[in-house]
Write a structure and sequence with these properties.
With about 240 residues, the protein is an alpha/beta fold. The protein is about 25% helix and about 30% strand. It has helices at about 40-45, 60-80, 95-105, 160-165, 190-200, 215-225; strands at about 1-5, 20-25, 30-35, 55, 90, 110-115, 120, 125-130, 140-145, 150, 170-175, 205-210, 230-235, 240. The structure holds zinc ion.
Length: about 240
């Protein structure tokens, strides 16, 4: 299993940066986890949109789904110009009417609504969704393939569910939006230390930190490593063997 980071910025893409998006390659499949603003150019450096087998959207904040809308424009343009593209599988929380109208008109996506405990199967890959506390309906996802487990937190406040979702994972890709002293969003995002604590409680192999503000990067790493030494900062453009 291989993980490639196309975006890891919190809330808004920084100069030259990109918001949450991660490619998982396993069992011959390509699964994209989230498609935040500014991630699509990063993705296209390594992969054609039409080569994806599945797009998973953890929740409908634009730093996690913003570029999905432009991806749809690209795919429908290619179809209109005569390319024979099969509908691309898309998993997300229930879409509000405006988003369904944007995304589901035409045959670009084949959409599945996820819910707490729901599973999605591709040949050789199983995904399980865990609803986590956030400002909007939001899911962590556990991806099992090739005997390996990757759990992605999505955006989450502190909760017990994340440790269940990450239990025994080889890699836990976890948000670390906050550092000590930043309490304003602490019920719907994680402190870096809390990400470390979940990694420890869940006995994961490694913790990869995402959704952090780059000005806080060193503190994010130090505070996560206090609870879980095998923590590192995810980097845009990097790939990780799991
Ligand atoms: Zn969010």
């Amino acid at each position: 299993m291989k993980l490639t980071v196309f975006g890891n910025n919190a809330s808004c893409p920084e100069a030259g940066g990109a918001c949450s998006s991660f490619l998982v390659e396993a069992a011959g499949k390509r699964i994209l986890l989230d498609m935040g603003c500014a991630s699509l150019p990063q993705l296209q450096r390594q992969c054609d949109l039409a080569e994806l087998d599945l797009i998973v959207i953890s929740h409908l904040h634009f730093d996690h789904c913003g570029d999905l809308f432009c991806a749809k424009y690209q795919l429908e343009t290619r179809i209109a110009r005569g390319q024979a593209l099969a509908p691309l599988a898309l998993c997300s929380p229930a879409l509000p009417e405006w988003a369904a109208k944007e995304l589901l008109q035409g045959e670009v996506f084949r959409h599945t609504t996820v819910f707490d405990g729901s599973q999605y199967q591709l040949e050789g890959v199983e995904l399980t969704f865990f609803q986590v506390p956030h400002l909007v309906e939001s899911y962590a996802v556990r991806v099992c393939a090739e005997g390996k487990i990757l759990t992605y937190s999505g955006d989450s406040g502190p909760c017990e569910i994340l440790a269940c979702a990450a239990k025994g994972a080889d890699c836990f890709l976890c948000e670390a939006s906050l550092v000590e002293g930043q309490h304003a969003e602490s019920n719907h995002h994680l402190m870096a230390g809390e990400a470390g604590r979940v990694a420890k409680d869940a006995h994961v192999g490694r913790l990869l930190l995402t959704h952090y503000h780059s000005e806080d990067a060193q503190q994010v790493l130090i505070q996560a490593q206090r609870c879980f030494p095998n923590a590192s900062l995810s980097c845009i453009g990097e790939s990780y063997e799991i």
